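Marked as duplicate of an earlier ticket. Keeping the data here for the record.
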Amino acid sequence: MQTWKRAVIFSSLGAGAALFLSGKRPAGAALAGIGLAVFAIENRDKFEGAWRDLPELLDRGSSLIAKVADLSQRLAQQRMEL
């Protein structure tokens, strides 16, 4: 990958993250999207594999979030009982 493409990818992702964290979420998401788009164009084979694995990854993520939510509810109930 050429140096200027790396610079575009990393600078847009970094600026997007900074804007997102500073409260300017639409601008941050737009810049991060540009960085991801350039990265996807340069690494099509990796993104095709990730696209195929996406449903399984989403299922794992949602089950993990459900477990964490259940754990936090249990902890909150225990605190209320004390």
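See parent ticket for discussion. The mean pLDDT is 87.
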